[in-house]
Amino acid sequence: MKYDPEKHHRRSIRLKGYDYSQAGAYFVTICTQNRECLFGEIVEGEMRLNNAGQIVQSVWNELSQHYLGVDIDAFAVMPNHIHGIVVLTSVGAGPCAYPDGGQPRGVAPTMSMSLPDVVHRFKSMTTTRYRHSYTQNGFRPYPSRLWQRDYYDHIIRNDDELNRIREYIINNPLKWEFDRENPFSVNYNLDYKEYFKGIYER
Structural domains in the chain? Predict the structure, then answer.
């Protein structure tokens, strides 16, 4: 079946009724719009970031510095998507001022961050930096937007699952040939839950 970003991402895939501001660890996957390979390439099982990929990596590294109650764990930038673990702590406080447009509007300083908040800030900051860079440094322009509207998340239930997901993220470049986001993979566009099933239920 041909991939249609609007059809496949119009409906929310968040867990219905779940409070995504709860303290805990969350595995997230975010894809570029139309799965454009903008961040570098895989060479002999190693992800080689270009300048755009380095921007994405740097924004991730800075999240916990600018947003109280948000910690980061394992992370990987792939050619057309990212995998990462976001940890929300019980000491939630509002985000600090951020120079790249990450400051939310109309949010009280004492309000804690939810997972959708974190993903939104990450998308916003990377998009702003990327846009500045392609106008000034000749980066490859992205389509209508840098990231797809939605994203995949999984609520991490225990330490065993956490360690398996960390291992998956770290080793992801080695398995690019079979990655569901690789347009040349036999797993391309496989259902997320089915694709990750082996990680969670191993």
Answer: 21-200 (3.30.70.1290)
Task: Please give the structure tokens belonging to residue 125.
Answer: 């900051």
Mean pLDDT along residues 46-75? 95
> What are the angstrom distances between the C-alpha of 115 and each of 14, 15, 86, 112, 153?
10, 12, 8, 10, 9
Contacts of 94 (CB under 8 A, 6+ apart): 68, 104, 107, 108, 109, 110, 111, 112, 113
pLDDT digits (tens, 9 = 90+) for 100-122: 444 444 343 445 789 999 999 99
Of residues 188 and 14, the one with the higher pLDDT is 188
Neighbours of 180 (CB within 10 A): 18
Partners of residue 25 on adjacent β-strands? 87, 156
Q: What is the three-class DSSP state of 52?
A: helix
Q: Of the ranges 78-92, 106-120, 137-151, which is most confident?
A: 78-92
Backbone CA torsion sign across 120, 17, 75, 80: negative
For the residues of 128-160, what is the DSSP string, one character each? HHHHHHHHHH-PPPPSS-SB-S--EEEEE-SHH
H-state helical runs in the chain: 5-9, 51-66, 115-137, 159-171, 192-200
